[in-house]
Amino acid sequence: MRIGLIAEFNPLHTGHKYLISEAKKIIAENGVGELVCVMSEFFTQRGEVAIIDGYSRAREAIYSGCDLVIALPYRVSVAFSDDFAHKSIEILVNCKITHLIFGTEEDIEKFEYMYNLENSSETTIKIKEYLKLGYSYPKIMSKIFEINSVNSNFILAYSYYKAIKKLAPNIKLIPVKRRGQNLNQTNLDDSEFLSATSIRKNYANELIKNYISENMYNNIFNKANMNEEKFYNLLKYKILSLGKENLKNIYDVTEGLENRIYQAALISNNYDELVALISTKRYTNKRIKRILSYVLTNSSRNEMLEDIKDLRILAVNKNKTYLIKEINKLEKVKLHQKLNKNNEKYFKHDIRVARIYNIFYNENDIFKYNIEIVE
User: Exposure check for the chain: N or C terminus, fewer CB within 10 A?
Assistant: First the structure.
């Protein structure tokens, strides 16, 4: 048995630990197995800056029960939901997982209903009509499936379901009901589990010590506590220096969006205002945040669509290091334990992203850390 987990752990909190513990219970019942995680590093799926570096979060994941943590390339980490799910699961399939565990607000039966409905010819026509009217994907989902509220976690869970159906229907799904705060809640309350958003917004409040480990708390508090606003001036400079013509070369900048981005940069005073000025009915805040991260990192269409063969390991349980050799022997992907002159050519895009992140993180060179072997 080999269970796969797709994560950001931004930061890793008690809700994540609950999900990991559920996976470990299933492995224990089976008698043998591993928990393999793929995790975003410097930017997240919603286009936001990770609060702390990937190595620190990966180490915490191993302490919490994961056996191997593989870095998702930037081009996966900051992709729209279906693409993020497809590429993440493709990596896990190539690592020979037998199960996929994920949190969800809905039962599998709901996803099965949605999948069948979405793939009907009648629904395909409706989706095209809504796209012409300028509706965003979440809004289209709420209309097609008659769902009042569609959050990003719900969309991702459904995207995982669709990707498994397409790539590896033999893989068994382990849905775990979410508990505690809703995804986007920012207030501190007495919930069983706080949202990662709430923890990030209130990182200086000692109450969050009840929801994250002491190591994670100290790392967040003593390091840079990264956020999008820190990059605002750099991002604004990048937009203005590229100009409208060169903005067109950035991934997902289409249909004259370069004009909105440029004009917004001229009059905005902070990051949130910049996002709000660019967003439209079709271009949600989350999509704009992703696009702005592409601008910041100068990510072209070719870079974002590159095939994924080579991957970096962030951390591994010292008793499960055999996984590295075992996965590499399959020759579906190549796991690298350390960056060097022989393999850095495979990671040019991620090196650039890491060093942009490090402008404000102030480590020596966070991309050249060694693999964490955790006891």
Answer: C
